[in-house]
Amino acid sequence: MNQYFFKNILMAIKIDAFNKGVTPITSDKEPLQLLTINKQKGDVVKQHTHPKKKRQTDSLQECLVVIKGRLKIQLYNLEGQLFETVEVREGEAFITLNGGHEIEFLEDSQVFEIKNGPH
Q1: Which of 39, 62, 75, 89 would be a feasible disulfide site paired with 84, CB 3.0-4.6 Å?
Q2: Structure pTM?
Q3: Beta-ladder partners of 84
Q4: CA-to-CA distance for 14 and 80, rounded, in angstroms?
């Protein structure tokens, strides 16, 4: 996992490996929660429900999961200045938390994009 900061603000996270078990990637204070799950055959997550809870966010975050292909993501600070370029490959995920970004598809790609809504 790589974290990308600009002036001590966490802007993005790249996930390129899975730890054993359930690993939170984002803090519980972020609007978009991301965890990795690495379980063995026969493991069970017991039946459960998620209680209704009022949730209110004032920012939009997104997670890109690259199924096939390769992306170049440029990260911009809140003033629109480029501060980092990251390559994300098949089997990796990338979550943007703050600032802006630009995505270039370096190969034919299939990507899941997950956001807290509405868009």
Answers
A1: 75
A2: 0.88
A3: 75
A4: 20
- Supply 113's token pair: 């994009």
How far apart are the C-alpha atoms of 1 and 7, rounded to whole Å? 19
What token pair was written down for 94?
């990338």
**Peptide bond preceding 24 in cis form (omega within 30 of 0):** no
**Is residue 81 included in any domain, yes or no?**
yes
Domain harbouring 15, CATH code: 2.60.120
**Residue 34 lies inside a defined structural domain of this protein:** yes
Is 14 contained in some domain?
A: yes
Q: What is the pLDDT of residue 119?
A: 66
Which CA distances in Å does 62 have to 4, 44, 48, 109? 15, 28, 26, 17
